[in-house]
Design a protein that fits this description.
heterodimer; A: Rossmann fold; elongated; B: alpha/beta; Rossmann fold; 15 helices
């Protein structure tokens, strides 16, 4: 799963290769980013799935929940699938890890007045996996599978399982038309790389479908002549390194998984196709920091390659602009001037203004740095519509906080173009 | 406060392996790199390892992507040096096979059959054994001649807090798969080092709700599995340019914008080229100041929560100009001053 490891596989090479050919826009064109019209996206009944993705710590979960709440307040019947919400947010949404199914959130009168609904759930990765096994295997096979140590390890801690199960759950929710949702908002797992969840199903299926699997289960099935020297070496090494017991467990696991596997692969492919469908919209979430924007850039490019519909970019925690007419330099200069006059205990107003001017200079400096980074991103990806959410003084942990984020996401001047153009 | 910092490193005189973790976005890679620089500046040979394949270290030190090979990336004073290594589990497996089983060619055969990919991804315990196993190998490596340790200190940029306990608790992970056999023995030896006085796990956090909560949870989980928790490192600590009186006045909403117009005029503001009225400018400055104070108040409460844990706490300042190599030296100096290196 690691990008470094993956890069060694020919299968994953093309992505890196293609990325090298990325071509930017012609130099000198107008580079204003289009504003992402969040309300239009939410109001469009053709939007049935919104996937929020981005690197860790950029506010994906909050963004997903805020979008879901706003959609519900605009009359949609929404279910939001969160992966790992902050405890207080989870509590205020009434989410518990216990049931692995959506429950209706008491989101205030606005939702009801608009005829909408907000359901929410938190992904339980192991449980989702167990349910898939139980649904697709005979009771005896399922039992055998659920207690196999390899299955237990795979379903509870494989780095890609969470990604895979998030997509599995999305497929399940989408299939439940009877629950009456017309919009599903999905948060994605905090992966090492934001791209992991796109690759997880494919990687898992190729692992379980690979040459090695056929090789390992061959002795159990086929005639002995299938055992080429290669197989001999492999099983020999494995039993040496892992121990014979581990090898036996592994073989049992694979034999059991193999019969299940047709179904897994098909489902992975269906979910992948769903992600490419026009009713899906990806929202890439980032903060105006180099690492987060780099991940966002990979993501935007990858979505393009895989023909997945991108709605736009949400930039969280942008330092707000106050008193834009006063430049950083001028503020610092004025602060110096005041300090010189402050030598022996001047008026408290002078000290206050000096401090406030320095604070202004700091904020203006951060903001300028952030906008430089965003401008570069937009220059390289001019087709990406964007919206910016200013950094809030407090943390978001209740429905009111989410509503506020929703308002900020969709306010008319939320685009970044007026800052960046 | 000073007293808390001074005792930081004296609490763990034997630590040679520093594991650095934190929630995504808290800057754990930056802190790990700064810690490596701090250790190297006192003349130590330091190995900085990356376990997640993101090449964050290469970017911080402004060098090409790191191969699976130890490379010198920075020189400290007094002969200290930072070497960096990006640990790739697949390469580590092949190296392991070669080292312990002399399986040069057979190892490559395994790779060809997709075994290496399979084993390193699907059996997560194995993956972690390989990653920590490489760290363990570097930790124990000695010079042939005088048998002294090759590295005085090792800093591991580890997976985020959400996965750290599982990552470090390798033998339990593997126990589910292998009750005996070579892999199990390897896992047990690794665990002995991780649980020893020679290892400390430092947790990086920001003064925000979720990272603080996750950090304190992770610290307890680490305690529970017998690992030594090192310092809680509060990263990106906001410094205030406002004096106490002004902060207090803003917090109590006693600072009236109109009263500041005179002082602004003394500073020559708004003045030429600043297209805003003195009243509006004062209003904007006060609003920004009030938000800043609100954030500071929240951060102070979170900081208290962090300190109430009774664990040693270090802080690193928020760098408003972004993190570059020069800034990392500043952070390293700050860690030295606080006794973490």
């Amino acid at each position: 799963m690691s990008p470094a490891g993956g890069a060694r596989k020919p299968r994953r090479q093309p992505r890196a290769g293609r990325a090298a050919h990325r071509v930017g826009p012609l130099v000198g064109g107008k580079r204003a980013a289009a504003a992402l019209d969040v309300d239009a996206l939410l109001d469009d009944r053709r939007t049935e799935i919104i996937v929020c993705c981005g690197s860790g710590g950029v506010g994906k979960t909050t963004t997903a929940a805020a979008l879901a709440l706003r959609a519900a307040e605009r009359g949609r019947s929404v279910v939001v699938l969160t992966i790992d919400p902050a405890r207080r947010l989870a509590q205020s949404l009434g989410l518990s890890a216990l049931d692995n199914t959506p429950a209706t959130v008491d989101a205030g009168p606005a939702v009801e007045a608009a005829g909408g609904r907000l359901d929410a759930m938190m992904l339980d990765m192991k449980r989702t996996f167990d349910e898939v096994v139980e649904a697709h295997a005979s009771p005896e096979k399922a039992e055998q599978m659920l207690t196999n140590p390899f299955y237990v390890a795979l379903s509870s801690s494989f780095a890609g399982t969470q990604e895979y199960m998030a997509m599995e759950k999305l497929g399940q929710l989408y299939a439940r038309k009877d629950r009456g949702w017309d919009l599903i908002v999905v948060d994605t797992p905090p992966s090492r790389s934001a791209l992991d969840f796109l690759d997880a199903p494919e990687h898992l299926s190729s692992l379980l479908d690979g040459r090695f699997i056929r090789l390992l289960i061959a002795p159990a099935r086929g005639p002995v002549r299938l055992l080429s020297t290669g197989v001999g070496v492999v099983t020999n090494v494995l039993s040496k390194v892992l121990g014979a017991q581990v090898l036996r467990d592994l073989q049992t696991f694979i034999a059991a998984f193999d019969t299940l596997f047709g179904g897994f692969r098909q489902r992975a492919e269906r979910t992948y196709a769903l992600l490419q469908a026009p009713q899906t919209a990806f929202v890439v979430v980032a903060t105006p920091e180099p690492d987060a924007l780099r991940e966002a850039a990979y993501f935007v490019e990858r979505l393009g390659e895989d023909k997945m519909p991108l709605a736009g970019l949400v930039l969280n925690r942008v330092t707000g602009s106050s008193a834009p007419a006063l430049s950083r330099e001028r503020a610092l200069e004025a602060a110096e001037q005041l300090r010189d006059g402050l030598s022996d205990g001047g008026e408290s107003e002078h000290a206050a203004v000096e401090g406030l001017l320095r604070l202004h200079a700091e904020r203006a400096g951060s903001r300028a740095r952030q906008l430089r980074l965003v401008r570069r991103f937009i220059a390289a990806h001019p087709w990406v519509a964007a919206t910016a959410v200013p950094a809030l003084p407090g943390d978001v942990h209740d429905v009111d906080g989410l509503r506020r984020i929703g308002e900020l996401l969709s306010r008319a001047d939320a685009g970044v173009d007026e800052d960046v153009a | 406060m000073r007293a808390v910092y001074a005792r930081v490193m004296s609490e763990w005189p034997h630590v040679r392996l520093h594991v650095v973790t934190g929630k995504g976005g808290t800057g754990k890679t930056t802190v790990a790199a700064a810690l490596a620089l701090a250790l190297a500046s006192s003349g130590q040979q330091v190995l900085l390892c990356e376990a997640e394949g993101r090449q964050g270290i290469a970017r911080l030190f402004d060098v090409p992507p790191l191969p699976y090979e130890e490379r010198s990336v920075a020189l400290g004073s007094e002969g200290g040096e930072v070497h960096a290594l990006a640990i790739d589990p697949e390469a580590a497996l092949l190296e392991y096979l070669d080292m312990y089983y002399h399986l040069g060619r057979a190892g490559r055969a395994l790779d060809r059959f997709g075994v290496v990919d399979f084993v390193t991804t699907i059996a997560p315990g194995l993956r972690d054994v390989l990653l920590t196993g490489k760290v363990y190998e570097a930790y124990r490596r000695r010079h042939k001649k005088d048998k002294t340790s090759v590295y005085d200190a090792i800093v591991l940029d580890a997976p985020p807090t959400g996965r750290i306990t599982r990552f470090l608790n390798v033998n339990t992970e593997v126990a589910g798969l292998a009750k005996m056999g070579p892999i199990r023995n390897q896992a047990d030896s690794i665990m002995d080092v991780l649980r020893s006085e020679g290892t400390a796990v430092h947790l990086v956090t920001l003064l925000e709700d979720m990272p603080v909560q996750e950090t304190l949870d992770a610290a307890e989980e680490l305690d529970a599995i017998g690992l030594q928790v090192g310092a809680l490192i509060v990263n990106q600590l906001r410094m205030s340019p406002l004096d106490d009186d002004t902060r207090k006045a803003l917090g109590d909403q006693r600072l009236a914008a109109p009263a500041l117009v005179g002082a602004l005029a003394d500073a020559g503001l708004p003045g030429r080229g600043v297209a805003v009225s003195a009243e509006d400018l004062a209003e904007d400055l006060v609003t920004a100041g009030a938000e800043h104070v609100e954030r500071l108040t929240l951060e102070a409460a979170l900081r208290e929560t962090v300190e109430r844990s009774g664990r040693p706490v270090c802080t690193l300042p928020l760098l408003t100009d972004g993190v570059d190599l020069g800034a990392m030296y500043e952070l390293a100096e700050s860690l030295c001053a606080q006794g973490l290196a």
